[in-house]
Amino acid sequence: MLELKRLNSMEDLAKLQEEARPLLDLRHYARGEKEEKYQILICGGTGCSSSGSLNVRDALQKAIDDNGLHERVSIVVTGCHGFCELGPLVIFYPGGIFYVRVHPEDADELIKTTVIEGKTVDRLHYQGRTGKTPRHSYRDMLFYSLQKRMVLHNCGRIDPENIFEYIANGGYQGIAKAIAMGREATLEEVYKSGLRGRGGAGFPTGLKWKFMASEQAEPKYMLCNADEGDPGAFMDRSVLEGDPNAVIEGMLIGAWATGASLGYVYVRAEYPLAIKRLGIALAEAEALGLIGDNILGSGFNFHLKIKQGAGAFVCGEETALMRSIEGKRGMPRVRPPFPAKQGLWEKPTVLNNVETFANIPRIIMNGAEAFRQDGTEKSSGTKIFAVTGKVRNTGLVEVPMGVSMRHIIFDICAGIKDDKAFKAVQIGGPSGACLPASMLDNPVDYDSLTAAGAMMGSGGLVVVDEDTCMVDLARFFLSFTQAESCGKCTPCREGSKRMLEILERICNGNGRDGDIEELERLAHTMRTASLCALGQTAPNPVLSTLRFFRSEYEAHIHDKKCPAGTCTNLLQYKINPEKCKGCTLCARNCPVNAITGKVREPHLINPNKCIKCGTCMDKCKHGAIIRV
Question: Which residues belong to any copy of the 4Fe-4S ferredoxin-type domain (predicted)?
Fold first, then answer.
């Protein structure tokens, strides 16, 4: 059993890596080798855990013990595998035999069939898009084979609560190499990689680091923003849950390059599993001497702490985040001075997000040119997206920058649920934009999205289909940002409130002439005059839906109709007398007795009593009730 003993040199780290490698051996063998032993990897990310994956683990362990297989089979609980739609997920190694929607009652069959008999349980395999062709290995699935999992390469493959597995897979070799290279060479390698901040703004990481490295004031701070607050986004959470040591190592390299001696990971308290695993990784790294004083005998000192945030969306803004760490109310301040000069406690500070730091060890180990092999000239590397909404396969997707939105949604995520028509994708969270079908083939990179009036954001993709009202969607996102406004500056505080009032009025059927023009005026004022990015970008969903779906606003205002049929106050239910059989099923289920009629005769709906709940339409077996 490996022990957490301090590493005093780079040679100690290299020796430990060799000693730890057997931990991962089975996961690197193809089926047909080492078949006398098995490792079972169970997804222990938040999604699968909430679906009962830990109960599956217990049941599998019992089946292993009952069959006397404890010397042949071991279980590893990993981070998120990314295929969140079909959890709990289980993989048997060797071979990468992939099972989906596994329940505790499946455990005995899985152990007896897969381990003892050497066969597979087809009913628990992913059945493909047609539902007829089992995919025995995750390598056979388009969801995985069409991705390029670089940042996510450890997620779902190692135990995030065992630092030796990270080290066995090459972990902490990046900081060792950076120390050997020297500070200037480390800075230059990150700069040449072209890595841009993955938190949303896309500022060049190496340039930011150079700014702070040139400052003389002490101490310097290295901060990680894990305050992931966008609705539908879970990229950073999954990386922290599945590979926390990669983030720690990235921060170590950044601290070494810039001269920082203190660091904080600012993570929202709503991420208890991420906090737990990050805390374990930090404690193990400290025990090995990888965090603290005289790291690897180099004389380099860096101390790191976890700071839990209270869930304020505005604390994703860098200056508000720093005020929160200082114990103050999280509110942004005017810049300049920028944090690289005056940040946390008025000292030089670098802030990057989780995904940015997780890229750093790979850049140092493989070099800037290798990193630039993926992506585009101005947007190098890969990007993780959390794809949610009306797609068949929701989950985490990592692809090279510059691929099309169509490739992500239709090739990797298998298209739209129930064969509905694609309508739009919201990219960039509540501060992003809704892009229509005409832009599905546009490249997904920083500059292309900016040109389209959108933004990369942290990487949330919310896909909507033909049944989604774009006015209501804009109202939803604006209601979020309005509630999360800190209230410090008038343009954001008052502008978002006025815009939301107009959108709610339109959705309720009380829109009037001039509302569209007023929305545009308020939006442009907020973008120009708000203090921070929250207020400056909050109007984006409204402006983008006005740009691409203006006719829906006009229909709400002028025709008093919701084309998507979702705004309740603009709906009306009617009964087609030619189809109505007079079965009375609708009348018997109407909660407000708004439907009248005799048996075997066409019925009528009283529009003054109808509450537009849709129950009658759901219950009618003859298709006689229509929504207009």
Answer: 571-600, 601-628
